[in-house]
Structures are given as structure tokens and as C-alpha cells.
Design a protein that fits this description.
By secondary structure, this protein is of the alpha+beta class. It has a single domain, classed as Deoxyribonuclease I, Chain A. 24% of the residues lie in helices and 30% in strands. It has helices spanning 4-24, 47-61, 73-82, 167-179, 201-206, 217-220; strands at 28-35, 65-69, 86-89, 105-108, 112-121, 140-148, 154-161, 186-193, 214-216, 223-225, 244-249, 253-259, 263-264, 267-268, 275-280. The strands form 3 sheets. Strands 3-4-2-1-15-12-10 form a 7-stranded mixed β-sheet. A 6-stranded mixed β-sheet has the order 5-6-7-8-11-9. The chain has a two-stranded antiparallel sheet with strand order 13-14. Strand 13 and strand 14 (267-268) form a beta hairpin. Helix 2 crosses helix 3 (73-82). The radius of gyration is 17 Å and the shape is globular.
């Protein structure tokens, strides 16, 4: 069974949502960033055991947009089968098709239409599968432009997984995100496992006064829930470093922000805790 933290967080969402959303004069948007850990048979617990609990956790929270990291395509297929109503886009980092991990984005098809989807690589040759600088592995940036059906609002959603070894590669990848202008008249949300904490160079790049002028949703949150750290390494008692983040425009109202520590039978659902935020975006630009 899912532990109480998710229920407590969801109850908090339900209680505070109407007043905060009315204040911000915008429909709330729930976003999630989740490193789901690739299907490694030697993991304890392994993916087949984790999958149903992850699907139930996501279904309970019902995010509008989810950025997945380490998501092999068969894992994405499984989650989409378990979670009807989500569209998806993401390609394998090894070949731009089906091989390797993806940074897939899921989105609610009843709320959004897909305008554009693209994948680039963190390298000097971003349009072909590649790695560069001191990166250990190829790393992808997934970008979706979504149009909200009810309002016509545009969202520029980006999802990333920075390299776990290359410090230069991480900073360059952050600069690559910063160098891509926001889609015209869109609001931006950047999700991901950045393998970078708040004191790191990539974090500073993403939150400086240049380029996109983003802020960490945690720092803007009216209410925050759960530990600051997100990497648990499959240890239920550990929250580790805060390396998974949600970045938004500085004028975004962050109603709530949570790091969810749910477990089953004393086991965590992934080696990262998911990050969830409820956003009241500015009025359509």
C-alpha cells in the first residue's frame, strides 16, 4: 500500500487549491518530475515489482504533465497502458529512436493539444545522437509545446537528465536550455534530474538573471511538503541530495511543492523521490 505522505499531500492540495488559484486568477497546473530508474534486473526492488505502485502513485496525484527520466521505452509503454488519458513523446538517447533511456514527457490529452515536440542532445551537435565535453553518456533534452484546449494558453515544457559524471557537460547542458528562447506567448516549465544541487553551477545558470530568468519552484512555493533531498538510492531512510527540480518563470505562483516519499512493504518506488508542484500560471500572455 502507498504510505500516508501522498494522502496527506493530496489532502493539502485539495484544501488550499481554490483560494490560491482564485488569488492567482489562473487554472492550476499540476506538474511532476520523476526519475523512475531504468529497468535494471539487479535492482531491489526490480522494475516489475515497482511498476504497479508507481502507476497507482501517479494515478492518485493525476498530474497534468509528467517529465520522466531514465525511462526506457518499454517502461513508458507500460506506464501509459496503466495510465489511460496521457499522450507521450520521447526518443531513445542512443539512436534517436528506440534505443536507450528517454526523457519522455506525458501530458493529459483531455487538457492539452500537442503543437510541437522535439529532442536535442546535450552536445555541440544537438540534432544528432551524441555526447560531448566530459559526459559519460548521451543526454537528451525533450521539449513539447502544448496548447491548453480550454484557454488557448501555450506551455513550453522541457525535460532533462544531466550527466552524472561530467561537471562541464552538466553546465553546458544548462546553458543549452537557457539559450533556447521561450516559445512565443508561452509559459515555461523545466523539469528534470539535473544531477545538480542548489549550490552547483548548472543550478546557478538556470536561475540567473540572463536568458530564461527561471526560479526553482521550491523557492517560490507558498507551501512545501517532504524532504528537500530527492535521491534515495533505494534506501527508504535516505533523501540524499536535492538534484531533481522544477523550474518556472519568476512570475509563476507556486501553490504547493512536494517531494513524495511513498513506499510499499518498506521499499521505495524508485531510487529518486518524485517532485510535484501545483502552479497558477500568469494569465495567458
Amino acid at each position: 500500500m502507498i504510505r500516508q505522505p501522498v494522502l496527506a499531500f493530496a489532502a493539502l492540495l485539495a484544501l488550499a487549491l481554490p483560494a490560491a488559484a482564485e488569488t492567482a486568477k489562473a487554472d492550476p497546473l499540476r506538474v511532476m518530475s520523476y526519475n523512475i530508474r531504468y529497468d535494471n534486473p539487479s535492482d531491489v526492488p526490480p522494475w516489475p515489482e515497482r511498476r504497479p505502485h508507481m502507476a497507482r502513485q501517479i494515478a492518485f496525484l493525476a498530474p497534468d504533465i509528467i517529465g520522466l527520466q531514465e525511462a526506457l521505452l518499454p517502461m513508458v509503454d507500460a506506464l501509459v497502458a496503466d495510465l489511460p488519458g496521457y499522450g507521450r513523446y520521447g526518443v531513445g538517447r542512443d539512436d534517436g529512436e528506440a534505443e536507450g533511456e528517454t526523457t519522455t514527457v506525458l501530458y493529459r490529452t483531455d487538457r492539452f493539444d500537442l503543437v510541437k515536440a522535439e529532442t536535442t542532445w546535450c552536445s555541440k551537435t544537438p540534432n544528432v545522437p551524441s555526447k560531448d565535453y566530459d559526459a559519460n553518456l548521451p543526454r537528451t533534452l525533450t521539449r513539447l509545446i502544448l496548447r491548453e484546449k480550454a484557454s488557448g494558453r501555450l506551455l513550453d515544457v522541457r525535460n532533462a537528465h544531466f550527466d552524472h559524471i561530467g561537471a562541464v557537460a552538466r553546465e553546458k547542458c544548462a546553458k543549452q536550455i537557457e539559450a533556447t528562447p521561450i516559445w512565443p506567448k508561452a509559459d515555461i516549465v523545466v523539469l528534470g534530474d539535473f544531477n545538480s544541487g542548489p549550490d552547483s553551477a548548472p543550478y546557478r545558470v538556470l536561475t540567473d538573471d540572463k536568458g530564461l530568468k527561471l526560479a526553482d519552484a521550491h523557492t517560490l512555493a507558498k507551501t512545501a511538503f517532504g524532504p528537500r533531498g530527492t535521491f534515495n538510492g533505494f534506501d527508504i531512510a535516505k533523501s540524499g541530495d536535492a538534484i531533481d527540480h522544477i523550474f518556472v518563470s519568476r512570475d509563476t505562483v507556486v501553490i504547493r511543492y512536494g517531494v513524495l516519499t511513498d513506499s510499499f512493504d518498506g521499499k521505495v518506488i524508485s531510487d529518486h523521490f518524485p517532485v510535484v508542484a501545483d502552479l497558477a500560471l500568469p494569465n495567458p500572455r
